[in-house]
Structure formats: structure tokens, C-alpha cells
Amino acid sequence: MSEQSEQKVYRGRAGRAHRLSNSRPQGVYKSIDVKPATALIGGYVSGVDLTQPLAPQQVDDLSHALAEHNVLFFREQPELTPRQQVDFSQNFGALHIHPAAPHYAGHPEVIVIHTHKDSQVNNGGGWHTDVSCDEEPPLGTVLQLHTLPNTGGDTLFANMYAAFEALSDFMKDFLRGCTAMHESEHVYRGRYSDRGVDDAGKSFPSAVHPVVRTHPVSRREALYVNRGFTTKIVDMEALESDALLKFLFTHLEQPQFQVRFQWEPNSIAFWDNRCTQHLALWDYWPEERKGHRVTIKGERPIHRVN
Ligand code: SIN
After folding, report:
1. Of 90, 105, 159, 262, which is the most buried if we count CB atoms within 10 A?
2. Which of 130, 182, 215, 292 does the annotation list as catalytic?
3. Sign of the alpha-carbon torsion through 77, 83, 85, 87
4. What is the pLDDT of residue 26?
5. What is the distance between the alpha carbons of residues 241 and 258, in angstroms, rounded to a whole number?
6. Of 11-20, 103-112, 161-170, which one has max mean pLDDT?
7. Pick from 127, 306, 293: which is nearest to 224 by CA?
8. Which pTM value belongs to this model?
């Protein structure tokens, strides 16, 4: 490794550690163990039972682990009741109500993720960050899958800090000045009709967000456009916008930014929507895959120069 690249890596790590933790070193947790899934994204968490109320130390450790690994994976958990999943998620913020998806009876914060032989669509089947069409898109999402196909049904997650940092300085500077339209009419209209949802007369959210957002906890910059919801770069001609979005989607969907999670029954994934994207594979038809998703409210994305 050249002297120059050593310095670059060192500067990056030092800056990241400082911004993440205020005082604590990375990777040090008092109440949980975390094993990195890849060098860039994902951490396997053990030593915590998510059906039980969490102590403040556990919430603090999990918050830091999420900031460090961007998506946390929990195995060998019991099946959480909807109430337990809501209670766990509320440790990290108020809960978000999805603008379109049907929810679990009596729990508007709990979305039922369910694909089977008669499904028309697979929830989250393209690269996206959850509900980025909202003015205040969700901070994070907690998904537990109870029923799995014999094989397949993995979820891929990608690190949007890394995708941004891999761009040239010239491109980074240009993108810092851009905003983009995120829409959902094309995503949600009719999407849940196979589950009995009639959305006639309903309107679906749209919002303009910075193309590069500054994460409110880590203060790092992350790319914030996604193939699911982002439809246009504001103030560009259609051809320019289409070409730029095509480039950005191709860039950020490269495998070096990703981790692929193979679910086991009752595994839980807890991801940070502000700095990741994900994609749920539908490679198991006609088998069934089912679980519950709870989403935590976020704040309006901003780009801030640190
Ligand atoms: C989603 O996008 O929320 C669904 C993810 C999954 O089913 O793996």
C-alpha cells in the first residue's frame, strides 16, 4: 500500500470513529457482541433477547452498532408478537405508518410482508430505501421473517456512504448541489389489490430530497437516490436527468457495496434507511415467505457541510 493510500484510509477511519461515537471506540459494546458481516456493511448481533424490554445500555449499544454497521442481523430470536416488535422498535424512535401497505389487524405500525404462489408482486423487489417519497422518510426498519422458502428469499443491503465515497471528487461536488424528486404513485397504485386494498381516490406522497444527504448521527455523506422512488433530478432536462440517474443507480448497485443476508426462521434485520438501500429477492416462487415489518420515523433529509 502506498504512503498516500495509507494516509487516505487512516484519515477516513479516524474521522468516522470520531463522528460516530463522541467518545467510545468503535466495536466496543458492554451488553452485546457484534461480528461484522463484511468490511463495509452488516453486523451479526448476539447476546440480546428482543422479546424482552431493553435496558438503556442495550439501546445505546444497539444504536452505536447500527451507526457502525448500518444494518444489524439477529439470529436465534423467538418469534416476536406484534406488540413486542413495536416495543423493540420504539426504543429507537416514534413509529411510521406506511402510506399504502396493509397492516396487521390492530397494529397500524406493523406491515405484513407476505409472498406466496398467488402474489402479484414482491415487496421491496427492486433497490430502494424505504418510503423515500415521504417528506420525512423512515429512519430505520425492523423486519422479522417467520415463514421462509426452502431456499432463496435473501435480502441484499448496500452501503450508500461507500457508494458516495467511491465517486470522484468532481462528481461528489457536483452531486452535493443537486436535489431529486421521489414519487410513489407508480410504486403503490394498485400494488396491494391482491390483498384487498382499494386505493381509488387515494393520493400517494412525493417529496424533493438532496441527492447527497448528511446522516444526522454519523455526519457522513450518503447517496440518497434509489431506483424505486427517485424519478427526476430537479432543474435538469429530462435527458440529462435520465442519464445521471441511470449512472447513479448502476454505480450504487455494484456488489462491492453490498451484503447478502440469508434468513433463518425468526431472523431479524434492523437497517438504517438513511445510509443503506436494500432489495428482496423473489427467487422462490411458488413458495411462501412471510413476516412482520415495523418502520421507525425519520427526519427530513438535509445536506450539511461539516
Ligand atoms: C422491504 O423492502 O421492506 C422488504 C424486505 C424483505 O422482504 O426482505
Report:
1. 159
2. 130
3. negative
4. 78
5. 25
6. 161-170
7. 127
8. 0.91
- Ligand 1 atom nearest to CA at 289: 7
Residue pair 212/221 in contact (Cβ under 8 Å)? The answer is yes
Q: What is the DSSP string of 44-91?
A: EEES--TTSPPPHHHHHHHHHHHHHHSEEEE-SPPPPPHHHHHHHHHT
Question: Using an 8 Å Cβ cutoff, are 41 and 70 in contact?
Answer: yes
How far is the C-alpha of 287 from the C-alpha of 6, rounded, in Å?
48
3-state DSSP call for residue 266? coil
Q: Which atom of ligand 1 is nearest to the CA of 263?
A: 8
- Matching CATH number, 3-296, of 3.40.50.150, 3.40.50.300, 3.40.50.1980, 3.60.130.10: 3.60.130.10
Residue 246 has pLDDT above 80, yes or no: yes
Whether the CB-CB separation of 72 and 65 falls below 8 Å is answered with yes
